[in-house]
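=== RUN LOG ===
request id: a7f3
mode: sequence -> structure
chains: 1
length: 100
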Amino acid sequence: MNTNVSPSIFSLLTNYKGKLSLAVTLQIIATIVGLIPFIVVYRLAVALLNPPVLHSYAWQLIAAAFVAVVVKWVLLAIAGSLSHIVAYDVLCDVRLKISA
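=== RESULT ===
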C-alpha cells in the first residue's frame, strides 16, 4: 500500500464544476472590466490636453468609468457568493461522509 498518496479535495469538487467555472469566469470578466476606468482616465487626460474639450464627451467618459466600477463589484459579489456556496456545500458533503 502506498502511504504517500494523500486524499485530494478535487474529487469532492466534481459535483460543483459548473458553479466554480462560472465563479472563475465572472472573476476574470470583473478583472477585465476593472481596467476600463484606467483607460477612461487616459482618454480623459488626452482630451484635456488637446483643447477644445467637449463637456459631453468628458461626462460620457466619467459615466463609463462609474458604470464599469459598479459592474466590476457586482460581478465580484456574484462570483464570491458562488464560490462561498460551493465551499460550504463541500464542507457539508465532507461532514456527511465523515458521519456516515
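=== NOTES ===
The mean pLDDT is 91.
The chain has three helices and no strands.
=== END ===
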